[in-house]
Amino acid sequence: MSPDDMLSKLQPTSIQISAIQELRENKRQSDYFNHLSAISESIPALGWVTINQDPSHYVKEMNDAGQFYSNRVLKEWKEINKVHVDWVKAWVETLSDLQNYVQNYYSTGLVCYEIRCGTDDFPPSMIQINTPPTTSPPSLL
Asked: Which residues does the UniProt record annotate as the domain CAP N-terminal (predicted)?
């Protein structure tokens, strides 16, 4: 796969990461700013596929980057609403699980051979494409 092909495949994820970071910047007055910041600071972990050496370390760094804001959510909400505490634990666990997955299966980086990179190489039953919902969920912000 050429670098241009790789960029085009990663572009949708990159756009969403940027949208998350922009949302955070636009919601500085929100009661959920620390939540948004925890996600915004750590969501670049999804870019592990571009890291050639020890991508699990990159995922950990991104998890650590969001930890400051995760801790603020815990401190602010632990006595008010346990749902927020559970949310932080779930997010941190998700990133930790991603780190473990990358470490176990891609410890030296993503390997993509020209003949195996495209979805055309796999039977349709092996490919799951989730389409976004047609309606937006209600906004908490």
From this structure: 6-110
The answer as to whether 107 is a domain residue is yes
pLDDT block averages, 10 residues each, the chain of length 141: 78 92 93 95 92 92 95 93 94 96 90 53 42 45 48
Residue 132 lies in a domain: no
Report the CATH number at residue 22: 1.25.40.330
pTM of the model: 0.74
Q: How many folded domains does the chain comprise?
A: 1
Comparing C-alpha atoms, which of 50, 45, 52 is closest to residue 100?
45
> What letters, b where the CB count within 10 A reaches 16 and e where it falls short, cover 87-117?
bbeebbeebeebbeebeeebeebeeeeeeee
